[in-house]
Amino acid sequence: MPCAQGRWLANLSVVARLLTLGGLCYGRHPQPGQVRFPDRRQEHFIKALPEYHVVAPVRVDASGHFLSYGLRHPYPSSRRKRAADGPEDRVYYRISHEEKDLFFNLTVNQGFLSKSYIVERRHGNLSHVKMVASRGPPCHLRGTVLQQGTRVGTAALSSCHGLTGLFHLPHGDFFIEPVKEHPRAEGEHHPHVIYKRRREEPACGLKDSLGSARKLALRRERSTLPGRSLSRRSISRERWVETLVVADTKMVEYHGSENVESYILTIMNMVTGLFHNPSIGNAIHIVVVRLILLEEEEQGLKIVHHAEKTLSSFCKWQKSINPKSDLNPAHHDVAVLLTRKDICAGVNRPCETLGLSHLSGMCQPHRSCNINEDSGLPLAFTIAHELGHSFGIQHDGKENDCEPVGRHPFIMSRQLQYNPSPLTWSQCSKEYITRFLDRGWGFCLDDMPQKKGLKSKVIAPGVIYDVHHQCQLQYGPNATFCQEVENVCQTLWCLVRGFCRSKLDAAADGTRCGEKKWCMAGKCITVGKKPESIPGGWGRWSAWSHCSRTCGAGAQSAERLCNNPEPKFGGKYCTGERKRYRLCNVHPCRPGAPTFRQMQCSEFDTVPYKNEFYSWFPVFSAAHPCELYCRPIDGQFSEKMLDAVIDGTPCFEGGNSRNVCINGICKRVGCDYEIDSNATEDRCGVCLGDGSACHTVRKMFKQKEGSGNTRTCH
């Protein structure tokens, strides 16, 4: 068969130019009947498909010139110094598919995965575990598909063993995989199979509705905490959350064993982006270190409709498989279960619950875990929400005023209502997570994971999953995009059984919204225009706040914000000192005056408690000295009124301790009235003295007692 001349796109940027290739021959295009499938399982799978095509991909240069039948990207040695996203990160392929020449312009995507990232496929017990570690040079690629100089689609492929992955064209989504175990001599092509994404009926009993309610059951409070060294300043530091992700059998079945990993990593990419939003007020990186795919039911793990029973089982199971040493590359700080089971809080039947997590469970091995029901791409918000609970973040509007009527919802809102604005973290969420970290409760997140690639570009999820696919993820395989409704970047509408329906979520970033346009942050902008990341910078220190007390040692604070500039588009959040404290009005209060705790408890005298009014008196808790506990003066019970007493409250009344509570933490105070000071009085009672301000007076005298004995005293 003679080789035809073709037209190719040289694409090192968004702008394309056409080149004519003279007489490039890539060999005879294989036909389905001419290819054997040595792997029986693959043969059974492929031949059961309604349609498939056998192709022969080749690696080419940027101008389309043939380079090799070997498809592995010759990535340079990691020891060699190179520029990020440089030419060595790019690779190009040519595939003739359905009588069309497709040009793949791809870039290495190291992403957010650990280089020691492991995928485990479990078949019931440890004796049937298949583990795949990420070794060697990066081989995961993201980029665009072009035809005759025009961008026609996107691709997410792996070149680790041939080309494996997913690419999107205007007329459908296509998977590609190599013919396994195919004999191949040097200089010959390796046949691959291309087939369309299958449409499958949803499994019995599954609901694909996201629903409007985010029902969460928060049951347990943190009881004991390890002692940590604390500072008088609030320090913003980078934190790394080493994450285990587990997909249950229904997830694997629903998305397909070969495709579920790509889907999950797309979701986790979105979660990473949510925690990089500057509204969270901290530098937090979500790093996936281990992915477990349950091909069969796992012994010891029971996943049922009852969300609490499932969470209890999962937390126990994940703790049992977590290596104790933090130096182990498979060790995780938090475990995330993804399930297609329709879970429900409190009862063993389907309902609208989306997730469940322990409050403040992070860094507690038996409680640092959550479960999440898969309902399509919005799953990313569910995971972020549940991880927020692990960081001690309560719902907006629960014992705080962060969700008044009329304002748009936040990530930690109880219900996700319609609003075109991107979801962010509320001020309350920022305060909760900052307090959690300042208390030292996130101590397990301080170690930077070894050999992590955190700076690579992450492809927008809408590039991988178009509007039709997003609708199918939410409403099932028969749903399609509703063409009649405009402004997809603000609200995604899907055609379901002849009617347009919406979960009131915006289409994912990267979704096509017009000719050469895509959605970004709720707006339709030109494709390729994604603002460069802007790292945050500290603003000026604020003036010192008013003293919290008029006597007895109150507290003042000064803070600075990460707003000069504010981090944007994935830019790093500021690290360093963000809040500082000092004591003020240290002179004693008048004798007989009520204590500062008494004053705080009395504030609740006018607040009804179970429809009754009481006069409240403070109760001290040795385990939680900086929480406010009060009891009725004549009552036999006590109640926690506040998570944290007002800054400047003594940790303990009476005695010689000067220690005070700052931001809910008991701080050591020296005799110089400096926080975290080791200053003490010398033998003369002088603060930081050297003992020279006084001297010992000695005298000798003798006294005879009645018995005639003499006693000598000095």
UniProtKB/TrEMBL annotation:
Ca(2+) 2 binds at residues 242, 326, 447. Ca(2+) 1 binds at residues 242, 326, 333, 444, 447. GO terms for biological process: extracellular matrix organization; proteolysis. One of its GO terms (molecular function) is metal ion binding. It comes from the Eukaryota. It holds the Pfam family ADAMTS_CR_3. Residues 239-449 form the Peptidase M12B domain. Its main location: secreted. The active site is at 386. Its cofactor is Zn(2+). It is found in: Secreted, Extracellular space, Extracellular matrix. Keywords: Calcium, Disulfide bond, Extracellular matrix, Glycoprotein, Hydrolase, Metal-binding, Metalloprotease, Protease, Repeat, Secreted, Signal, Zinc. Zn(2+) binds at residues 204, 385, 389, 395. Residues 1-27 form the signal peptide. Disulfide bonds join 315-369, 344-351, 363-444, 402-428, 471-494, 482-500, 489-519, 513-524, 547-584, 551-589, 562-574. GO terms for cellular component: extracellular matrix. PANTHER family: A DISINTEGRIN AND METALLOPROTEINASE WITH THROMBOSPONDIN MOTIFS 12 (PTHR13723:SF189), ADAMTS A DISINTEGRIN AND METALLOPROTEASE WITH THROMBOSPONDIN MOTIFS PROTEASE (PTHR13723). This is ADAM metallopeptidase with thrombospondin type 1 motif 12. It comes from Phyllostomus discolor (pale spear-nosed bat).
